[in-house]
Amino acid sequence: MQDLENIIRPIKAELAAVKGNYSHQLRWQSEPIKGIGNYLSRTHGKFFRPTLVLLSAKMGDSAKMDKAVSLGVAIELIHAASLVHDDIIDDSVLRRKQKTINSKWGNAISVIAGDYLLARAFDIVSKMDEPRIMTVFSRTAARMCEGELAQLSNAYNFNITEHEYLDIIKRKSAYLISDCCASGGMLAGLSEEKVNRLAAYGLYLGMAFQIVDDCLDLIGKEKNLGKSVWQDLDEGKLTLPIIFILKGASKRDRIRIVDLITSGGKTAHRILREKASATGAISRSRTIAFNYIKLAKKKLTENDGMLRKTFYDIADYVLERKS
Predict the structure, then answer these.
(1) Which of 198, 196, 150, 193 is nearest to 170 (CA)?
(2) DSSP assignment letter at 227
(3) What is the distance between the alpha carbons of residues 44 and 290, in angstroms, rounded to a whole number?
(4) Reported confidence tier of residue 221, pLDDT bands at 50, 70, 90
(5) pTM exceeding 0.70
(6) At a CB cut-off of 8 Å and minimum separation 6, what does 220 contact?
């Protein structure tokens, strides 16, 4: 598997600008928000979503790359806000190999910090004078909330279907990745047809990204992932591999699996991890992720130029990543 840094060389300078601007946005003056800003600037992720904005923007009019950088910063702030809120909901204690904001500052301050990140993000977008993009991300923020609410309402729903799970991750995760690609294409001045293809590529990529993430949450190691594993399952949020384990179980075995999920703990985790591999639930889930990657790649054509290979490589990276 190629390293992500090698894949994204075409936007190295612009991504560096996003990272610098993002850190600048977090230089807050008053406590405790100052401490939280410093913490976030030290614990950022791979800037995967801004990367998609920049690559999509590179496909056309380069005159708006400054706006693409600003949009990348805003999207990373939106993503950071969603992680802060997720950690509060899940009572997580580890994120990117560091203590979570809620475990350091408490839930009340963390809620306001997440809201503040969103406010900063939408302030950036509003100043870009791109009403179409403002509309896109207002809609996306609403969809992310809908996805989170749907996931919470299905906690410990042992009859949740594959279709319901896919709908949740589409709204909670995939639409944001889709809109990263589409908005970059809008800034590039691409045709409506090309923008729509980029949006579809991003949607399929986002679906695969979340399915792989949910597989890693069951079989990955906390030290490699840099975050709390098993958190979703301990909160009763059933992911695709667990849905497949339950679906293929006998009535008697299903009762035992439900009991393991409800009780939690290291023994339950070990047994469920073994079942996820032994029953084929992980391989079946990865096959679905692979199919989404194939659909994503089909949205790219020869007319997409030199960046087509980069988008292909990113799709492969999403499928093969270990963290």
Answers:
(1) 150
(2) B
(3) 27
(4) low
(5) yes
(6) 229, 322, 323
Quickly tell me which residue has 């991890």 as its tokens: 273
Residue 120 token pair:
């900063």
- Whichever domain contains 39, its CATH number is 1.10.600.10
Please tell me the distance from the alpha carbon of residue 73 to that of residue 257, in angstroms, as a whole number: 43
Query: Are 226 and 94 within 8 A, CB to CB?
Result: yes
List pLDDT tens digits, range 80-125. Answer: 999 888 888 877 777 666 788 888 888 898 899 899 999 999 999 9
- Residue 52 and residue 182 in contact, taking contact as beta carbons nearer than 8 Å: no
- For residue 213, what are the contacts with CB-CB under 8 A and spacing of at least 6? none
Number of domains comprising the chain: 1
Q: Which domain holds residue 73?
A: 4-320
Closest listed residue to residue 52, CA positions, set 181, 162, 140, 167: 181
DSSP state of 99: E
**pLDDT of 222:** 53
Tokens of 229: 């594993």
Question: What per-residue confidence (pLDDT) applies to 96?
Answer: 62
Q: What values do phi and psi take at 28, rounded to 5? A: -95, 155
